Amino acid sequence: MADDKLSTEGQNGVEHRLIEVDIEQELRRSYLGYAISTLVSRALPDARDGFKPVQRRILYAMRELGIGPGSARVKSAKVVGECMGNYHPHGDAAIYATLVRMAQDFSYRYPLIDPQGNFGSIDGDPPAAMRYTECRLTPLAVEMMEDIDRDTVDFMPNYDQSRQEPIVFPAKFPNLLCNGAEGIAVGMSTSIPPHNLREVVEASIYMLDHPDATPDDLFRFIPGPDFPTGGLVLGTRGVREAYRTGRGRIIMQANLQIEPMDGGRNAIVVTELPYQVNKARLIEHIAELVRHKRVDGITDINDFSDRNGMRIVIELRRDVVPNRIVNFLLKHTALRQTFGAIMLALVNEQPRILNLAQIIRAHLEHRREVIVRRTRYELARARHQAHIREGLQIALNFLDEIIALIRRSQSSEEARAEMCARFNLTQIQADAILSMQLRQLARLERQKIENEYRQLLKEIAGLEDILETPARVTKMIKDELRALRDKYGDDRRTRILQTEAEEITEEDLIPEEKTLVTISRDGYIKRVPLDTYRTQRRGGKGVQAAKLKEEDQISHLFVATTTHYILFFTDKGRVYRLKAYEVPQVSRQARGQHINNFIQTEAGEQITAILPIKDINGPGYLLMVTQNGEVKRTALTEFANLRANGLICFDIEEGDSLRWVRHTSGNDEIILVTREGLAIRFPETDVPERGRAAGGVRGIELRDPATKTLRDVVVAVAVVGAEDRDAQLLVASENGFGKRTDLASYRVQSRGGRGIITMNVTPRTGKIVDAVIVRPEDKLILLTEKGVAIRIDVASIRLAGRSTQGVKLIDLAEGDRVATIERLLETDLADEEGEDEEVASSTAGQ
């Protein structure tokens, strides 16, 4: 409580009162008053008509000026001046900006002002000055104010008490939902999306029939917002949340499609944008991303939008995957936006978060009150008219006496008083009789008055029945809503997809393309585009695949799609997982990065087997083979949940190591090839299915029967699928020799045998290093220990028997040896249109 103190220190003996107040309390009180004033008088819409005060005042000022749909448009400056001078003394800029927005068909779903001139554009162009533009009310705006002069709403004095302005409009049109609302107040804001009139009317009629309807009930009629710019709404989860609680995140997305162009190129064509997205700024942002090389593959952006619609064409390079560019743009530009719905409005001058049912109910209750007040007004008018008609009939029945009475009266006041006393008339009736025209004395006019009186009595009875029967009021609301729907309703512009918007991950932005991955013995891994190594003739020198450290050498080479998983298996029987796109793509000569930057191998472990796989939850088995010839197969699904530090996948015996892993169907055949030139082929079903941590069984006998010591080791594993039975087995030796032999030459035998000859191993050829299943149309990548790679046609390698030495595949440098080979399927090469073929063998410096 403030303390009052008296002081006489003022001049001329005038006393001054000093009031001590707590500054914290005073600031709180003053700021609260300001905040409430901002909420009620400026920033938030009324739940009944959906208008903020400035919007309501602009439309009312235009009505007072008589600027309706049938009149000529007037200068916007005149409307702004009228509104500012009479109702809204807050500056012409704010008033004009509000007027412009109500006229923009890309801002309002149902514009309330009919514009002429430059009222801005979706490109963010500002409107022309108010002295240049013209406007008038739209028919819907007139519907909003219909019956405002029939005592349907309350009025209040304007800011200078010189005239009256409406507190709220009668609002036949459900403006709050159909046009939405936006406003930022003190400590709170509102953001209500626009909706389709037809859907809102259907939901309102349903609520009139079912007063206890819930937002979920109304969701059947209003599936989501309907933005003036069209576009897409992804999923209904955010919409339902907004309708149930008043708050929700609605994911909007541009309407776009991929269209083919000349030369095998494609273009992304955008025809609709999310609500409130600036088209020019969007195009500028995309161009900026291209300039800064954040997105690769966009060659041109053109805006072909005109009065017939929007059309933004984003041209793409021929070699890019359009969907990847689309995903990038959706993630990094305004082509996908979030509309944060906060359905806040004033209810009884109090800000409240409303759900969908409460918003519709507030409008219907207001309309019910408007109709009741209008009916009362019409009833009072009808009773007044009937009362006058009663007096006129009395006058006509006693016409001669009344004429004589008037003629002898000294004044109209005397005549009125005498008539009231003589014929028991009211003053209103007496005034009406005194105002009667002589023509009303005719017989036909007398009949007309009697008919009017009877008609008024019927009208009075009907109006009284409306007031006594709420069902009739409900029917009138329905009829008015249906009339609005039929007159102004249109088709939905925004398409709602049932599929929820998924987070666009880094993987969605990676082009899905074939890539070549290599890993060295010391653990350096990299990937390069598949077309890095051009095709050479058999026996060429190849090109440098990597600059390796001294004493390091390439140990693995394989083709993988960027979105595939890569499973890494170590010699100790552990498995790790990585996505192919996570391996850095570098130049052909680069060494790459160490594998420990990506997976956490244990001390002493060495990567010995690598398997690219598309779906780790898919069908089939992983067939694992050790250097000493043990085999094992485990269901692929057991490897679905791999930890960062890996999992045990094979119980390795001492002195052995896991070397190969292959993905099998369960009904394939397996070929094991040894360093000394032997091979064994047996059915996969001979290998028992075992758990992930179990050991294996013998696949081929490599020990000397007499000494029980190892005399050979496995160097290659090939899987023969049902489609490969007519293919060939290609074998390569360390000195660069190789050959291919029909698989029919390898008979199927039982697991655990000694095998048969697959190549005549001599000092000239060197030991066997690798073998793969091939077809003549395939190509082959051969990699040496010093990092030289060559890509050759399989058809150029002679078809030979099992016991031959083969032909030279690569011209090795002194001291170099073949490390590994990889088959390139015809499908891997299908997209390499116009591929260059090198016929010269001297391409080492390429």
UniProtKB/TrEMBL annotation:
A motif (GyrA-box) lies at residues 536-542. It catalyses: ATP-dependent breakage, passage and rejoining of double-stranded DNA. It is an enzyme of class 5 (isomerase). GO terms for cellular component: chromosome; cytoplasm; DNA topoisomerase type II (double strand cut, ATP-hydrolyzing) complex. Keywords: ATP-binding, Coiled coil, Cytoplasm, DNA-binding, Isomerase, Nucleotide-binding, Topoisomerase. GO terms for molecular function: ATP binding; DNA binding; DNA negative supercoiling activity. InterPro entries: GyrA, GyrA/parC_rep, Gyrase/topoIV_suA_C, Topo_IIA-like_dom_sf, Topo_IIA_A/C_ab, Topo_IIA_A_a_sf, Topo_IIA_dom_A, Type_II_DNA_Topoisomerases. The active site is at 132 (o-(5'-phospho-dna)-tyrosine intermediate). Residues 439-466 form a coiled coil. Its main location: cytoplasm. Pfam families: DNA_gyraseA_C (PF03989), DNA_topoisoIV (PF00521). Its EC number is 5.6.2.2. GO terms for biological process: DNA topological change; DNA-templated DNA replication. It is found in: Cytoplasm. SMART domains: TOP4c. Residues 44-509 form the Topo IIA-type catalytic domain. It comes from the Bacteria. Few gyrases are as efficient as E.coli at forming negative supercoils. Not all organisms have 2 type II topoisomerases; in organisms with a single type II topoisomerase this enzyme also has to decatenate newly replicated chromosomes. Belongs to the type II topoisomerase GyrA/ParC subunit family. A type II topoisomerase that negatively supercoils closed circular double-stranded (ds) DNA in an ATP-dependent manner to modulate DNA topology and maintain chromosomes in an underwound state. Negative supercoiling favors strand separation, and DNA replication, transcription, recombination and repair, all of which involve strand separation. Also able to catalyze the interconversion of other topological isomers of dsDNA rings, including catenanes and knotted rings. Type II topoisomerases break and join 2 DNA strands simultaneously in an ATP-dependent manner. Heterotetramer composed of ParC and ParE. Heterotetramer, composed of two GyrA and two GyrB chains. In the heterotetramer, GyrA contains the active site tyrosine that forms a transient covalent intermediate with DNA, while GyrB binds cofactors and catalyzes ATP hydrolysis. This is DNA gyrase subunit A. It comes from Chthonomonas calidirosea (strain DSM 23976 / ICMP 18418 / T49).
